[in-house]
Every structure is written in C-alpha cells, then in structure tokens.
Amino acid sequence: MKKIDDLMTISNGRLYTEKDHVKADTSGCVLCHACCLGIDGMVELNPYDVFQLRNATNLTFEALNHQHVTTIPDGKLMIPHLKTIGSDERCTFLNVDNRCDVHGFRPSTCRLFPLGRVYTDMPNDFKYFLQIGACVKPILKLIPVDKWIAIDDYEENKKFILSWYQIVKALKFRLKFEHDTQTANKLSQYFLTTFFSIDPGAEETFYDAYYRQLPEAKKTLGIL
Ligand code: SF4
Ligand code: SF4
C-alpha cells in the first residue's frame, strides 16, 4: 500500500482505473524472473492470496507458513508475506527452471506487477499506478489494466480488497492502543487463524465465506 506522497518518486504520476490502458504488458516475461528475486518482506499476502496458494499447493495455512510464507510484524499485527530463500532472496515458488510454480494462483502483488495500488479513504477506493523502471524490460506494451491483472470476478475481488484494507487499518489502530501484550498477541493470532484459513462451504465462494465470518471476527477483534 503506497501513500500518495510516495508516488511521485516511483511512478509516472498517473493513476489508472481498471479500464484505462497502461504500459505494463511484458509480453510474457520471456526468460525473465527478475521480479521474483530480492523480494524478502516485499510481497504482502491477503486472505484471498493465501486461499489461492492453499488451492495451488494443497497445504494448510499452517503448513504453508513453514514452507512458503512468513509472518512479519507491522506494529503489533503479524502479516503474512511470501517467504524467500538464499542470498538472492528468491521466492520459494520459483522452480529450478526459474518459472513460477503457482502462476495461475499467484498473489495479487505478483499479478499486478509492475503496477501497484494506491488507496483513498473518502471514498473507500483504490487506483493503480505504474512503477517506473521496476520491470527490467525496456519496452512494455499498452494493455487495459483489468486485462493485465486477469483475475476471476474482478468486481468481487475489488470489493474484498477494499474491505480487507479497512479491516487491517482498523485493527492496526485498535492494537496501537492495546498496551496489554498478551491481549495484543491473542488478537493478532486470532486475525491469522480466522482470516487465513477460510474454508468455503460446498455452495460458497471464498468471498461468501469471508463475509459470513466477518461480523463475528470484527466483534472479537473489537473493531467496527
Ligand atoms: S509467487 Fe510466483 S510470481 Fe510471485 S514472486 Fe513467487 S515465483 Fe514470482
Ligand atoms: S521483471 Fe518484468 S519481464 Fe521480468 S519477470 Fe518481472 S514482470 Fe516479467
């Protein structure tokens, strides 16, 4: 999540909606895996990302957390990120042929790259920006933003991303004023086990299951 102030230094200063055309198309990244290296602490995961990785690997969140995911503190909250190995901080999903083992299920940060998201609170929304020079390819082609991201149920996913942004923000704020370490740790643990192990029922999508659990989770976490 980037602040508007940071944007001028890393972008061309333009903000894009999903229907805008942007020079982000890498034409398949042929023989390149540069952005899957040097990513230690860089790829934050949301519950949908973890759900997708669980589908791709058939691992539980707990097992993923040992092999491919690591939690990093953000204030008093532990946030899952992609784990890396080696001095070149290589993503653990990058295989021996330097291809992504979970390409169809890759996290949204990977899906967006070289785009990023910037959030606004009023209204609760986000736009996209192009990270200038982040992709090593010298020439990127124009493509509509939603076509580049190519995620199923774009509107549902966007609604979820916005909801998640507000949950994390509210919980970070709540924990800022929680001076009892035991309570803070308990809430952070609840946050991880509740949201990152979502199991939709037979007739449910991930999003259905997320919204079903949300009221109880908010009550337990003490956020609005
Ligand atoms: S999940 Fe795939 S695309 Fe994302 S950093 Fe790892 S190897 Fe690269
Ligand atoms: S640096 Fe650019 S071309 Fe290379 S893998 Fe990443 S997005 Fe593809």
Largest β sheet strand count, sense and barrel closure = 2 strands, antiparallel
Mean pLDDT: 95
Helix % is: 25-40%
Instruction: Estimate the strand proportion.
Output: 15-25%
Helix and strand composition category: alpha+beta
Terminal Cα separation, in Å?
21 Å
The string of secondary-structure elements, in order, is HEHHEEEEHEEEHHHH
Q: If you compute it from the alpha carbons, what radius of gyration comes out, rounded to the nearest whole angstrom?
A: 18 Å
Strand order of the largest sheet: 1-8
Total helical segments: 8
List all distinct small molecules, including ions and cofactors, that are bound in this structure. Answer: iron/sulfur cluster
Shape annotation: globular
Query: What is the total tally of β strands?
Result: 8
Low-confidence stretches: none
Q: How many discrete structural domains?
A: 1
Provide a descriptive summary of the structure in words:
This protein is α+β, with helices and mostly antiparallel strands. The chain has one domain. The protein has helices at residues 4-10, 47-57, 61-67, 108-112, 145-149, 154-176, 181-195, 206-221; strands spanning 21-25, 69-74, 77-82, 84-85, 90-91, 115-120, 125-130, 141-144. A hairpin with a 2-residue loop joins β2 (69-74) and β3 (77-82). The radius of gyration is 18 Å and the shape is globular. It starts with a helix and ends with a helix. The model has no long low-confidence stretch (mean pLDDT 95). The site of one iron/sulfur cluster has 12 residues, from loops.
